[in-house]
Amino acid sequence: MFADHAKIIIKSGKGGDGHVSFHREKYVANGGPDGGDGGKGGDVVFVVDQGLNTLTDFRHRRKFAAANGENGGKSNCSGKKGEDVILKVPAGTVIKDAESNKVIADMSGENTRQIILKGGRGGQGNQHYATATMQVPKYAQPGKPGIELEVVLELKVIADVGLVGFPNVGKSTFLSRVTNAQPKIANYHFTTLNPNLGVVDLESGNGFVIADIPGLIEGASEGIGLGIQFLRHIERTRVIVHIVDAASTEGRDPIADIYAINRELETYDPGLMDKPTVIAANKIDAIYDGSNDAIDAIKAEFEPKGIRVMPISAVSGKGVRELLYHVQELLAEAEQIPVVFEQEYDPQMQVFKEDPFTVRYDEENDYYVVEGPKIEKMLGYTNIDSEKGFVFFQKFLKEQGVLEELEKAGIVDGDTVHMYGHEFDYYK
Predict the structure, then answer these.
(1) Contact 97, 104 (CB under 8 A)
(2) pTM here?
């Protein structure tokens, strides 16, 4: 099966912790703090590899993690940056957040390399926390955690022209005639299980890339059959060639088939109906009575709607040349801007909860209790006995939303707040 969809977990590296140490040297009794900073965690980077055309590499491995940053050391030595994890994908891969299905990045066009998750920032060593009133800081900043995210990778092939139609209408035969592609051809449904790509070379020198979009049947857009797996590949195409069995070799009504496929395309993405379209009425070599009634009926139905109908035989080649030049004209008239999916979600902007805090009222002691790792660490290196340090700590509580949560809990002026052995009177 063609691997054009994968769900994986990616994780950036944690930043290294800052170091706590003090300068020690002969004849220097009380050296100052010299703890080094932690190294930054590794990033998760996606890179386009032109040699790839599927997502097969992600079928048997599901989790990819960058390396953590190294902890800081003594003598102001900074930790080493964590190694990035580089994930190679084919051009046209769209990266989405698995939970919201929103686009994070589209690896196409000029976007050949993008950092999807940045590594955590390294923590500062205790050398940064020395003040006039606290000359022996015994606290260093811990490194920021990495980000873990489940993402969906979708490969949407990059082709100028998309071939659509029911199975057995001759799409693969047509593709093999007009391009160097060699798709498997046989008379049974779902023969083509991957979107074959081929390049059409015309005498004028203006060639184009054409893709056979396989597996479409009624209900494909609702997940019936295999078609839903391949509908995504038509989103980037600029022109649609709708191939239909005009000879009704399987007893199907070609007009009803065209409407059925159009319904699937419109259900999947209404914007597909705005793309320039031509109907290739195939298998005219199988109309043995020489009548043009079937072709005339298709033309009468769709040409008044502005959709040209061109009779062809993919087997004999009759009408194929004319069709290709008409497609070239449509491409020349169509918008040249490539389809690039805009970013809808930035993992770096999500609100992380690595430093949560709790606010609760202790009835027994008649005070409010505020707890949280970040608050505890801040108290550890802030000199709240000084006016400047106390103002700094109050500002920190406000920025973290602690004061807001205390007010939601019902605190009033004069109430007591308890934080890790410290007690404060609250006044708004």
Answers:
(1) yes
(2) 0.65
